[in-house]
Design goal:
Main location: cytoplasm
Keywords: Cytoplasm
Oligomer: single chain
Subcellular location: Cytoplasm
CATH class of the largest domain: Mainly Alpha
Pfam families: RecX_HTH1, RecX_HTH2, RecX_HTH3
Distance between the termini: 83 Å
Number of domains: 4
CATH architecture of the largest domain: Orthogonal Bundle
Largest sheet: 4 strands, antiparallel
Radius of gyration: 28 Å
Shape: rod-shaped
InterPro entries: RecX_HTH_1st (IPR053926), RecX_HTH_2nd (IPR053924), RecX_HTH_3rd (IPR053925), Regulatory_RecX (IPR003783), WH-like_DNA-bd_sf (IPR036388)
Length: 209
């Protein structure tokens, strides 16, 4: 059986320690695990226990990476999984994902609703653009469809009219067909559907709003 011959705190990261077994460096791990497993110099340890400790350490590293990532920007379950799989084994990643979901640190439904609210109220874009944004964030199809279905049609038309008015003020041509084409292209790019675009253009050109 092997023996722990030294436990040294790392100079650049005081949260981690280097573990030496039989006078040779074996691995580094979080300092809290030293106390959790009651490890100390001179203690004999078997291979199975070291493997167990190493797995727990990997889980803690993956969890901390996920938490640090979330503090910077919210992520979908898919994007978080992809990020973690670059550095950790699948079984470790799935454990972390379950932890994040348990404490609502990753919540695709909430994330989708938040994106929709921001895109509708501030970016003022249409459903198609919002759907593209949700897909790009890796949000699941069921949450996308649910969030999109909650968008108020009147609010979407109001946004299309707002953007059409902004655009028309920059169009130099006085030809009605040219104006309509430019407005249509602009609103289509902003993600509005055919009916919403036509209604918005008609109201703006006829001065109804």
């Amino acid at each position: 059986m092997s023996k722990i011959t030294a436990i040294e705190f790392q100079k650049k990261n005081k949260d981690r320690v280097n573990l030496y077994v039989d006078d040779e460096y074996l691995l580094s791990l979080y300092a809290e695990l030293i106390y959790k497993y009651n490890l100390e110099k001179g203690q004999e340890v078997d291979k199975d226990k070291l493997v167990e400790i190493l797995k727990v350490d990997e889980y803690e590293k993956a969890k901390n990476k996920a938490l640090q990532s979330i503090t910077r920007t919210e992520k979908s379950e898919k994007k978080m999984r992809e990020k973690l799989l670059k550095d950790f084994d699948e079984d470790i990643v799935e454990e972390v994902i379950e932890f994040l979901k348990k404490y609502s640190l990753v919540d695709d439904e909430r994330f989708a609703d938040r994106i929709v609210a921001n895109d509708v109220n501030f970016k003022k874009v249409g459903k198609n653009k919002i759907k593209q944004n949700l897909y790009s964030k890796g949000i699941g199809r069921e949450y996308i469809e649910s969030a999109i279905s909650e968008i108020d049609r009147d609010k979407e038309l109001e946004n299309a009219i707002y953007l059409a008015k902004k655009k028309i003020s920059k169009i130099k041509s006085t030809d009605e067909r040219t104006i309509k084409n430019k407005l249509y292209q602009h609103l289509a790019y902003k993600g509005f559907d055919y009916d919403t675009i036509n209604s918005a253009i008609r109201r703006v050109l006829e001065g109804e709003d």
